[in-house]
Amino acid sequence: MEYRLGNSLRIKSRGDTVELTCPKCKEKVQFGVFSNFERRLAPKITLLDCNTVYFLVCPECAAVFTVDEAKGDSFKKGQKLSIGNFDLKTLKEFKTKL
Description:
Layout (H helix, E strand, L loop, with lengths): L11 E5 L3 E2 L6 E2 L2 E4 L18 E4 L6 E4 L1 H8 L12 E2 L8
Antiparallel strand pairs: 1-4, 2-3, 4-5, 5-6, 6-7
């Protein structure tokens, strides 16, 4: 579950991956990596489940995938090889619980 601060829909570019094979179009491409959230109110408090969602966009077919937060954090810190072909997952739709 994600909680946004304010009404900002900020998306930050995190760079491009090494050459990977897109699961949808089977082309070898460098995915663009983006994240939607990077601020947390209080990291020690577990009342809010705040996760940074990293998503990758194929430049050939515009397919969108995601990776685990730990993999995305490593990528953001400069470890380009932290994201590989087997790390790509289907991006799930964000749903609020009301």
